[in-house]
TrEMBL record:
Transmembrane segments: 42-70, 77-97, 103-120
Any one GO biological process: lipopolysaccharide biosynthetic process
Matching SUPFAM superfamilies: Multidrug resistance efflux transporter EmrE
Cellular-component GO terms for this entry: plasma membrane
Pfam families listed in its UniProt record: EamA (PF00892)
Ranges of residues in domain EamA: 33-119
Provenance organism: Fulvimarina endophytica
Alphabetized UniProt keyword annotations: Cell inner membrane, Cell membrane, Lipid A biosynthesis, Lipid biosynthesis, Lipid metabolism, Lipopolysaccharide biosynthesis, Membrane, Transmembrane, Transmembrane helix
Lineage of origin: Bacteria, Pseudomonadati, Pseudomonadota, Alphaproteobacteria, Hyphomicrobiales
Membrane topology qualifier: Multi-pass membrane protein
Compartments reported by the entry: Cell membrane
Primary residence: membrane
GO molecular function: transmembrane transporter activity
Protein name as annotated: Transporter
Tree of life domain: Bacteria
Length: 146
């Protein structure tokens, strides 16, 4: 089970990185207004601004990683780990964007971390079953090749 934790954490951190890039990109663009402009062109200019585009591409990478994880572990095991992206984003936003990190937010972050820890301790039955199936098929293939 723990062999999938790096993939899960990669998903978490690419998700958080995407959020940070999107925020930075939107800060670069300034206040949005669709007054007097073609909305399609405005949306395209937003999507293709450098940091927004990079953030969207990072989301695609994060989702590809998440799909791989979902093929290996239970959804009820993998999905709660994504809440760690809230933690990473809050910490980064505090240090880089100077956003507020008050006692309520710190308390919420602590609860997220504790909850994720408990979920991780529960393991994932899908992964264990899949690993046993792979072992059985490899042993059978080895026996046939003899």
């Amino acid at each position: 089970m723990s062999k999938y934790i790096p993939f899960i954490l990669f998903t978490v951190f690419t998700n958080a990185a995407a959020q940070v890039m999107l925020k930075y990109g939107m800060m670069q663009l300034g206040s949005l207004s669709f007054v007097g402009v073609n909305p399609v062109f405005k949306l395209l200019s937003i999507v293709f601004s450098p940091f927004v585009f990079l953030g969207l591409c990072t989301f695609v990478i994060s989702m590809a990683s998440h799909l791989y994880v979902l093929s290996k572990v239970e959804l009820s095991y993998a999905y709660p780990f994504l809440s760690l992206a809230y933690v990473a984003v809050a910490v980064f936003a505090y240090f880089v964007f100077h956003e507020d990190l008050n006692a309520y937010r710190v308390g919420g972050i602590a609860l997220i971390c504790v909850g994720t820890y408990f979920i991780a301790q529960g393991g994932s039955a899908v992964s264990e079953e899949a690993e046993r199936a792979v072992e059985i098929s490899q042993n059978a293939a080895h026996e046939v090749s003899k």
